[in-house]
What does this fold into?
Amino acid sequence: MADELYKTLGVSKKASDEEIKKAYRKLARKYHPDRNPGDKEAEEKFKEVSAAHDVLSDPEKRKEYDSGGPFAGFGAGGQGPFGPGAGEAGGFGADLGDIFSSIFNRGGGPGRAQARQVRGRDLETEVPLSFDQAVNGAQISVTVPKAERCPTCHGSGAKPGTAPTTCPRCEGRGIDAQSQGFFSISQPCPQCGGSGQIIEDPCPTCGGSGLTQQTKRYKVNVPAGVRDGTRIRLAGKGEAGPRGGPPGDLYVTTRVASSPIFKRLDDGNLEVTVPISIPEALRGGTIEVPTLNGTKKIKVAPGTRHGSIQRLRGEGPPKPKGTGNGDIRYRLEIEIPSELSEEQSEAAEKLAEAFNGSDPRAELLRKAGA
It folds into this structure.
C-alpha cells in the first residue's frame, strides 16, 4: 500500500519532515527494547517504526515511495524492495544503535559509539524539625549511609598499580551489535556489561565495583516557612556512579512537629483559637494574642459572635519563594463556664432581666409556623 508507512508513523501523506521526525521519535521512545525488555511485540513494532522512518525521512526514498517506485513495496514488516535482509546491502538498512543514539544522544553511528556512564542512585532521607525551625528556617545535619568511590582504587575498580583494559569484544564501545535480518540490534556488551572496560585484577577493597559503603554527613539549609513533607534536593549528594559515573542526588524530606498554639492552614496561613469572656463578647474591648514573635493586641467588636475571625496580616510564616509573609487568623470562641458561682448566677439573672426576657428563638419558630 502506498500509505502503509504513513499509517505506521500515524501521520498523513502530506506530513512535513518535522512532523514525521516528531512522530518517529515519540513512537521510537515508546517501543524501544530498553523500555520494553522481553516484549517481542514492542520489538517488532519498533522495527516497523524504524523502517518507516528510514524511508520517509529521506526525500528521495519518500518520493519514490509516493510515486509507486521501488520503495512502494516497502511495508511495515521490514520487507524492502530487494527482499529480507537486503537493507544492509542496498544501503537502506536502519542500525538501531544509530537510531538510539539520535534519539537519546548517546554517541555517533557505528564505530563511534561510546560506553555510557551509569549515574548513581538518588537517595532519600527524612529530618525532624520543630515548629519554630520550620517557620524561621534552620541549618541541620543529616547522616546518610551510601555507596561512595572506593578510597583504594579511586573508583576505577582496578587494583592499585593496574588499570582497566579495553574490552576486546566491543573494543571499548560498551555496545554489542547483532544483525537480525534487515536490522542490526544494539545492546550492552555482555562481556563488559556496557562499561567498555575489563578489570583483570580487581581492587581488593571494593572487589572491582569501584564503590564502598560509607557514611556521610551533610549540612542542609532549611528555608524559612517549610511545611511538613517538603523535599529539599542536594544535587550530587546521592550515591556515586559505578566506575567513575556521576553521582545521584539526595532528597531530604522535612517532618515538622505540630505547635500547641498555632494550626497550619492549607493556604499557608496560621490559625489560633482565642477564648473570650461573655462580657468581652457583649461589650467588646482590646485583648492580647500570641504571634510568632511575642504578642500583639487586637480589638474585639461589641456583639462578637462565637467563632468570629480576626486577622493580623503579615504576621504569619514566610511564603514560598520569598513572596512575603502569610497571616495569622484568630478564631474567637466565647468561653461559657460549666458551673456558676452565686455571684455569677445573680449577674446572669440581672442580665436576663435587662433583656426583658426576650426569646432569641421566637423568629425561628415563627418561620416554622409553630
